[in-house]
Design goal:
Order of helices and strands: HHHEEHEEHEHHEE
GO molecular function: thiol S-methyltransferase activity
Number of strands: 7
Pfam family, one: Methyltransf_11
Protein name: Thiol methyltransferase 1B
Strand content: 15-25%
Keywords: Membrane, Transmembrane, Transmembrane helix
Number of domains: 1
Helix content: 40-55%
Bound molecules: S-adenosylmethionine
CATH topology: Rossmann fold
CATH class: Alpha Beta
Shape: globular
Radius of gyration: 18 Å
Distance between the termini: 40 Å
Largest sheet: 7 strands, mixed
InterPro entries: Methyltransf_11, SAM-dependent_MTases_sf, Thiol_S-MT
Length: 244
């Protein structure tokens, strides 16, 4: 099976050689960072239409989590275009964090469309090192379709726990690898080296459920959903919450 994966990977690599050469020369990443926000803008609308009721149900739990300030301090990790703003209740004070500053235009548009929220600031940084954010400063952290793209899910989850106050909640909606031994996983393995370049670092075969289970949350609840967009090689999704 491994030899077959390698052979097919090589075939895909040859078919997409210019992309890989550009990546090798450091020319692809800046291009990807510029176009990816446009791709996400389109995909976000599609995703949200399909998952609207689930997101609404998940984020309805934010009500009543206000800290000492009377507001809910919420960190949108890997904020992208601001895909979740419409689902948050009034009274949330949002901090956005994303390493890609090209999302700013889309984020500003989402903010203008969701005036029931307060926006604290947009921090351009990686989730693995959120030194701009103080320990225990957040009531809620949200991560949707982000843990697939980070360099180290383990370090990001440690940082999430650091910035959450005791009892604070981490809400997530993430995709993960198809089941072991399936043809779908084989195709994910074949496409991953090329997909990572096209989709701004997204790993198709990440075992995000295991990463969440090994992180030291005091409580963890999640449910699994089938892949959302059938024409993409993205696997099943998990949605849920963890308590610090
Ligand atoms: C697929 S997009 C999802 C955006 C948004 N959360 C959503 O649900 O539409 C992945 C996002 O994660 C961001 N990202 C990539 N690496 C990251 C990292 N190390 N830390 C935080 N965010 C990261 C990307 O810039 C991008 O905005």
């Amino acid at each position: 099976m491994d030899a077959l994966v390698r052979l097919l990977q090589l075939l895909v690599l040859l078919l997409t050689l210019p992309l890989h050469l550009m990546a090798l020369l450091g020319l692809w990443e800046p291009l990807c960072k510029s176009y990816f926000p446009y791709v996400m803008d389109v995909l976000t609308a599609k995703n949200n239409r399909k998952i609207e009721s689930k997101k609404r149900e998940l984020f309805s739990q934010i009500k009543g989590l206000a800290g000492a300030s009377g507001k809910v301090a919420l960190l949108e990790l890997g904020s992208g275009t601001g895909a979740n703003f419409q689902f948050y209740p009034a009274g949330c004070r949002i901090t956005c964090l994303d390493p890609n500053p090209h999302f700013q235009t889309f984020l500003t548009k989402s903010m203008a469309e969701n005036r029931h929220l307060e926006y604290e600031r947009f921090v351009v940084a990686f989730g693995e090192d959120m030194k701009e954010l103080a320990d225990g400063s957040m009531d809620v952290v949200v991560s949707t379709l982000v843990l697939c793209s980070v360099q180290s899910p383990k370090r990001v989850l440690q940082e999430v726990q650091r910035v959450l106050r005791p009892g604070g909640l981490f809400f997530f909606w993430e995709h993960m690898a198809e089941p072991q031994g399936s043809w779908a996983l084989l195709w994910q393995q074949v496409l991953e080296p090329t997909w990572k370049h096209i989709a701004d670092g997204c790993c198709l075969t990440r075992e995000t459920r295991k990463d969440l289970e090994s992180a030291k949350f005091s409580e963890l609840q999640m449910e699994q959903h089938p892949p959302l967009l059938k024409w993409l090689p993205v696997g099943p999704h998990i949605m849920g919450k963890a308590v610090k």
